[in-house]
Every structure is written in C-alpha cells, then in structure tokens.
C-alpha cells in the first residue's frame, strides 16, 4: 500500500512541477502588441460558426513575466443561431504574436 501511495505522490508532484510557468526576459517578450485586440478578434472570427456574430470586449494589455496578457469577454452564435453566452478568455502575446489563449472565468469580471 505504501508503494502505491509513493507512486501516486511522485506522479502528482511530477505533474505539478511540469506545469510550472516559464518566465521570459523582456527581450523574449518583445514590445507591446498594439494590435492585440485585432489579433484576438481575428482568431475568434476564424473559428466561429458565424464570424459576423462574434462580440468581444477586451481589457487593457499588461506586461507579465509570461508575456503581454489581456482578458476578453466573448460571445458568439452557435449552430442554432442563438448566442451561447459570455465566456472569458486570457490571451498571452510575445513579439507581437498570440502564443496562448485559455478560457478563464476570472476574465468575466
């Protein structure tokens, strides 16, 4: 029983440390992405069922150790033509490019 517990704890510890975020230098992050809103909107329009239905409210961009980050509140129509409801997303940019996008409820308000 102790060996099973040790294996499980080792696996959990490996998963946690493997998920640690890397910190980037200012040179790796690059300058502020002034068109960050357009990049995010283009992404959602490219994956939406109805690209013209995408409604997005985006907050200010902030410099973090992971890159330039901004939150957005997004809503779009589904296959039935109804809006699905607001979802929050966190965008990370480095060197003017979108490098990561995660659904994040904290971005709703």
What does this structure look like?
With about 110 residues, this protein is an alpha+beta fold. Helices cover about 30% and strands about 30% of the residues. The protein is built from 3 helices and 5 strands; from the N terminus they run H-H-H-E-E-E-E-E. Strands 1, 2, 3, 4 and 5 form a 5-stranded antiparallel beta sheet that branches. A hairpin with a 2-residue loop joins strand 2 and strand 3 (about 65-75). Residues about 5-20 have low confidence and may be disordered.
List key phrases describing it.
3 helices, 109 residues, 28% strand, alpha+beta, five-stranded antiparallel beta sheet
Give the CA-CA distance, first to last residue.
Answer: 45 Å
Give the biggest sheet: 5 strands, antiparallel
What is the global morphology?
Answer: elongated
Please count the beta strands (DSSP E, at least 2 residues each).
5
Low-confidence stretches: 5-18
Strand content: 25-35%
Number of helices: 3
Q: Please identify the structural class as seen in this structure.
A: alpha+beta
Structure in a nutshell:
With 109 residues, this protein is of the alpha+beta class. The chain has helices at 2-18, 26-29, 36-47; strands at 55-58, 62-64, 67-75, 87-94, 97-103. The relative contact order is 0.18.
Topology:
Blueprint: H1 2-18, H2 26-29, H3 36-47, E1 55-58, E2 62-64, E3 67-75, E4 87-94, E5 97-103
Antiparallel strand pairs: 1-3, 2-3, 3-4, 4-5
């Amino acid at each position: 029983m102790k060996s099973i517990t040790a294996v499980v704890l080792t696996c959990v510890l490996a998963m946690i440390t493997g998920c640690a975020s890397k910190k980037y230098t200012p040179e790796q992050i690059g300058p502020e992405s002034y068109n960050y809103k357009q990049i995010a909107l283009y992404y959602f329009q490219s994956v939406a069922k109805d690209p013209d239905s995408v409604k997005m409210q985006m907050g200010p961009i902030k410099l973090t150790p992971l890159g330039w980050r901004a939150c957005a509140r997004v809503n779009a129509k589904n296959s039935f033509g109804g809006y699905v409801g607001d979802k929050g997303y966190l965008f990370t940019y480095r060197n003017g490019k979108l490098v990561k996008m995660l659904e994040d409820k904290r971005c709703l308000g």
